[in-house]
Amino acid sequence: MFEPVTIKDIAKALGLSTSTVSRALRDTHEISAATKQIVLAYAKEINYQPNPIALSLKERRSKSIGVIVSEVANSYFSQAINGIESIAYDRGYHVILTQTHESYDREVINVQHLASRSVDGLLVSLSSQTNDISHLSYLHEKGLPIVFFDRVADEIETHKVIANNEKGAFEATSHLIKSGYKRIAHLTSSTQLSISIERLKGYEGALKANNITINPSYIKHCPHGGMIYEETENAIKELMALDEKPDAIFVAGDRLSTGCLSVFKNLKISVPKDMAIAGFSNSDVLDLFNPSLTSVRQPAFEIGQLATQMLLQLIEAKYPVEEFEKKILDTSLFVRNS
Amino acid sequence: MFEPVTIKDIAKALGLSTSTVSRALRDTHEISAATKQIVLAYAKEINYQPNPIALSLKERRSKSIGVIVSEVANSYFSQAINGIESIAYDRGYHVILTQTHESYDREVINVQHLASRSVDGLLVSLSSQTNDISHLSYLHEKGLPIVFFDRVADEIETHKVIANNEKGAFEATSHLIKSGYKRIAHLTSSTQLSISIERLKGYEGALKANNITINPSYIKHCPHGGMIYEETENAIKELMALDEKPDAIFVAGDRLSTGCLSVFKNLKISVPKDMAIAGFSNSDVLDLFNPSLTSVRQPAFEIGQLATQMLLQLIEAKYPVEEFEKKILDTSLFVRNS
DNA sequence: TTGTAAGCGTTATCAT
DNA sequence: ATGATAACGCTTACAA
C-alpha cells in the first residue's frame, strides 16, 4: 500500500543523481533543457509529489498556521474561520484548527501542541477563562508570530484585529435608549475578556451620554459566555427578581444573545412583555427571523481575513517587525423591523 | 530569534550522544536511571520540545487529518467539525481544515494539497459540483485512508457516516401530509449529491405511501445548495408561477432552508399565507425562534465524531482493512410548536 | 548502558 | 551540466 514516489526513485529510474532530479523539478538554470524535460515527463508519468514534510524539516517552516478559537460551532467564529481559510488558501498555507471550549487549560495545551514548531504562526482568540497569558508571551518572545483577533491580550505586543466593540455596544445601548427604554441591564461574559471590557465601556458610555445612572446590579457576568444554559438563566432570573426590573438588556456576546433569548422563551417567572434585547450576534439566521433582537453584527469574515494577512506578513517578514498594528473594524446594527 | 532546542543541543551540553538523549526522553529501558534523570532535568530546564516534523519525516506520518467540507460557516458542518476536533484532540491528531465552497476544482486542489503525504487520512464531504471522484479514488487505491461523511461517494469502498436522509425526508414529508398539505414541492440541491438522491427518495416515498402523485414540476434543483440567493429565488418563483401552486415545500438542505425562508420573507409575488415549510436544518437558533419551519435535524456532532473514530481506526490499523462500514444515524424532527 | 551510523526526502554546497 | 555529500531533527539497529 501507499508507497510514495520520491526524488530518489526518479533518479534511480533515470540513471541520474538526486540533485539533478531536484534541480530539474525546480526552476534552476543550471540544468540542460534536455534532462529537465526527461525528468519532468517521468515525474508526471509516475505522478511524483514532493514531500512537504521533508521540505518543512529542511526549510524550518510548515506552511501552516494554527488557529485557536473557543468554539467552531459559533457563527462568529465559523465566519472568521471562513475568512482565515480564504486567505490562507490563496497563500498556500494550511489551517490547523483547535478549540478551547473556553478552557484555559485546553488553551495552553493547544498552544503548545501547535507551537512546538509544527506551525509557522498562530491566530489566537483567547478563551474566556484565560487570565495568565505566559504560554503565549513565552512563544512570542521566542519569535513565533502571533496575531490576536477578537479576544486580544493587550500585554503582548503584536498585531491585533478586533471589531469596534465599544462603539458597537454604545450604538446598541443608545438604540435601546432612543427607543424609550431606561432601565437597561447588561449581560456579559467573563470579566477579564478584552471584548467584555470594551463592550461594558460602550454600554456605560451610552448611559452616561444620556444621563442615566449606572446601576451595578444591572450588570451580570456569565463567565462561560452563554455556553452553560443555567448560568445565563440564573443571571436573568436575578435581574428579574430586582425591585426595579430592567426593561431592556444589552447582551455582549453571540452565544449569550441566543442563550438569553431561549431563557426568555422558556422562563416561567414573570417577564415584562415588552422587554427589549439588543446584543452581539453573528447568526445571519437569527436576525432574519427573530423579531425580538436588535443585533450588533461583527465583520467576522473580514476580521479573519485581516488577521491572517497580518500573520502571514509577520511570518514572511525578512526582518523582525517592530511596529505593530491594532486594526479596529466597525460593527453594524441590525434593528428589528417589526 | 526563535532558535529551537534540539536533541543535539542537549547531547552537546551534557556530553552525551544524541541517541542516549533520545532514549532518555522516551521510555526506553535501555538506559540508566541516572543519565535519564539528568537528561530529563536539563531538557525541562531549557524547555526542550521535540520537533514533530522530524518525527513525521522519520515515521512517515504527520499525526494530522485533513477535513474537506463545502463551508465552515454552515451549522451542519461547524457542528460536525466540532465532533471531528473533539475526537482528533483526544487522540493527539491535528485537524487541517479546507473548504470547497461547492467547487469541484477547489475540491481537487484541496485533496491533492492535503494528500501529498502531509496528512494521515482524509475526512471528506463532497462538493455539490463533484461528479468525477477519480482524485479521491486514486489516493484511496494508493492506500490513503479516507472516510466520507454526509455527502458520500458510493463508488469508493471505505467507511461512510451519514444521517438517515431518506428516513428524515420521509418523516418531514409525511409530517406535512399529516398536517393536511397535499401539493408538496421539493426544493433540493445538485442532482448528483448522495444526500439529494436519498432525500428525494424519502420525499417520493412519503408521497407514494399516501397515494399522492409525484409531480415533476414540483421538484426544483438549486445546484449551489442555497449559497446563491437568486438560484433559490428563481426556483421558488417558478414554483409559485405554476397553475397549481404547491401549498408546502420540503427543503433538502441547511442553507437551502434558510435561503428559502428569506426568499419568502422578501418575495413580492403572491405566496399562499399558510405555506408550510419543512426542511433539513441544523441551526439551533433557527428552530428556537422561527415559527414557520419544521426542521429535520442531523446529529452532526456525532457524525463528525464517528467519522473521525473510523478514520483513525483505518489510519492506525496494522493490516489493510477489508470490511467497510456505512453507519447511518437517525435524524430528528423539530416540529414548530405554535 | 552508551555510542556510531544510517535513514526518513529534500535541497544547498562543493566538486567535477 | 551533473554528481557526491552534508544537513534539517529524530529514531533505531548495530557495535562497543
From TrEMBL, chains A, B:
Q: Does the keyword Endoplasmic reticulum apply?
A: no
Q: Which InterPro entries match?
A: Cro/C1-type_HTH, HTH_CRP, HTH_LacI, LacI/GalR-like_sensor, Lambda_DNA-bd_dom_sf, Peripla_BP_I, RNA_pol_sigma_54
Q: Name one GO molecular function term.
A: DNA binding
Highest rank taxon of the organism: Bacteria
Pfam families for the chain: LacI (PF00356), Peripla_BP_3 (PF13377)
Give a yes or no for keyword Transcription in this entry: yes
- PROSITE patterns according to UniProt: HTH_CROC1, HTH_CRP_2, HTH_LACI_2, SIGMA54_1
Locate the HTH lacI-type domain: which residues? 5-59
Residue span(s) of domain HTH crp-type: 1-44
For this protein, the record's SUPFAM superfamilies field holds: lambda repressor-like DNA-binding domains (SSF47413), Periplasmic binding protein-like I (SSF53822)
Under Gene3D superfamilies, the record lists:
3.40.50.2300, lambda repressor-like DNA-binding domains
Tell me the keywords, alphabetical order: DNA-binding, Transcription, Transcription regulation
Q: Which stretches make up the HTH cro/C1-type domain?
A: 6-49
| Name this protein carries in UniProt | LacI family DNA-binding transcriptional regulator
